């Protein structure tokens, strides 16, 4: 992607989320399935990143502050960055409502982060890489790694290409009518190593099974959550989850 194409893409993304900011959470995290997905993401994130007042986390894109506020509640100091000012306004309002003083928000382009090398203990990037062209993904990963301290952790989320066996296939080939979109939007097993070149991938966690929110109404939250988290750790079966959370570690000597 050329610089001009990148600028056009950034502008389009910013305008789209500026427009959607007020409805963003309501469209995704109010239903039973959405609430469960949000809870599972946070539980997995908490297991990867034990928070504490001496830890500095960077959340990009921060969006409406969904993750930033929860990380702050769990004791971390968090900086949230996003291209969309309207999304950041929603995030700041959410932080005020939660009375979180350890949160800061700033407009930031993920391709050129306004921080020095080795600033953060961890970088979190959820609900982002499915929007990013394949040739840009490695550039953004390297930039996130740059601002990590040596030995720091990058936690990035991707859509899974094998969700429910064939649900992702049906979605892209028939509903969206973009067959090639799967390679861009999803993380295939053969893409992991090239994308995270130079860092150690410690674990890939699958998140959310089909209709697990409905199953929760029958079996109860604890049983369904425990099963889906267990399932999401299995080496091959985790790819049948809706999303994949990759935990990677920056080498101590970088």
Which regions contain 5 or more consecutive residues with pLDDT less than 50?
none
**Overall strand count:** 7
Task: Kindly provide the radius of gyration, computed on alpha-carbon positions and rounded to a whole number of angstroms.
Answer: 18 Å
The rounded distance between the terminal residues' Cα atoms is 27 Å
Determine the CATH superfamily.
Answer: Vaccinia Virus protein VP39
Domain tally: 1
Largest sheet: 7 strands, mixed
Helical residues, percent: 40-55%
- The SS-based structural class is alpha/beta
- Average of pLDDT: 90
Shape: globular
Q: Kindly estimate the percentage of residues that lie in beta strands according to DSSP.
A: 15-25%
Oligomer: single chain
In the CATH hierarchy, the architecture is 3-Layer(aba) Sandwich
Helical stretch count? 11
Order of helix and strand elements from N to C terminus? HHHEHEHEEHEHHHEHHE
> What is CATH's topology name?
Rossmann fold
CATH class (first level) name: Alpha Beta
Strand order of the largest sheet: 3-2-1-4-5-7-6
Please characterize this protein's 3D structure.
This protein is of the alpha/beta class. It has one domain (3-249): Vaccinia Virus protein VP39 (Rossmann fold). It has helices at 3-20, 24-28, 32-48, 66-73, 85-97, 137-146, 167-175, 181-185, 189-195, 212-219, 221-231, and strands at 56-59, 77-82, 103-107, 120-125, 148-159, 200-207, 243-249. It has a seven-stranded mixed beta sheet with strand order 3-2-1-4-5-7-6. Helix 5 (85-97) links the parallel strand 2 and strand 3 (103-107). Helix 10 packs across helix 11. The longest helix is centred in the first third of the chain and has 18 residues, at 3-20. The radius of gyration is 18 Å and the shape is globular. The two termini are 27 Å apart. The model has no long low-confidence stretch (mean pLDDT 90).
């Amino acid at each position: 992607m050329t610089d001009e194409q990148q600028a056009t893409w950034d502008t389009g993304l910013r305008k789209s989320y500026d427009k959607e900011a007020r409805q963003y959470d309501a469209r995704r995290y109010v239903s039973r399935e959405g609430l469960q997905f949000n809870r599972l993401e946070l539980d997995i994130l908490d297991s990867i990143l034990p928070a504490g007042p001496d830890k500095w986390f960077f959340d990009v894109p921060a969006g409406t502050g969904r993750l930033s506020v929860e990380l702050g509640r769990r004791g971390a100091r968090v900086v949230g960055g996003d291209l969309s000012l309207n999304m950041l306004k929603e995030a700041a309002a959410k932080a005020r409502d939660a009375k979180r003083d350890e949160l800061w928000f700033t407009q930031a382009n993920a391709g050129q982060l306004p921080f020095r090398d080795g600033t953060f203990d961890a970088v979190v990037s959820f609900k982002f890489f499915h929007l990013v062209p394949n040739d840009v993904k490695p550039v953004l990963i390297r930039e996130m790694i740059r601002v990590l301290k040596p030995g720091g952790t990058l936690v990035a989320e991707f859509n899974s290409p094998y969700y429910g066996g064939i649900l992702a296939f049906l979605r892209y080939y028939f509903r969206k009518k973009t067959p090639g979109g799967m390679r861009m939007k999803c993380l295939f097993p053969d893409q992991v190593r090239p994308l995270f070149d130079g860092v150690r991938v410690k674990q890939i966690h699958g998140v959310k099974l089909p209709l697990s929110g409905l199953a929760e109404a029958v079996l109860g939250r604890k049983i369904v959550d425990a099963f889906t988290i267990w399932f999401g750790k299995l080496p091959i079966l985790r790819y049948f989850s809706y999303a994949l959370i990759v935990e990677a570690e920056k080498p101590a000597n970088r």
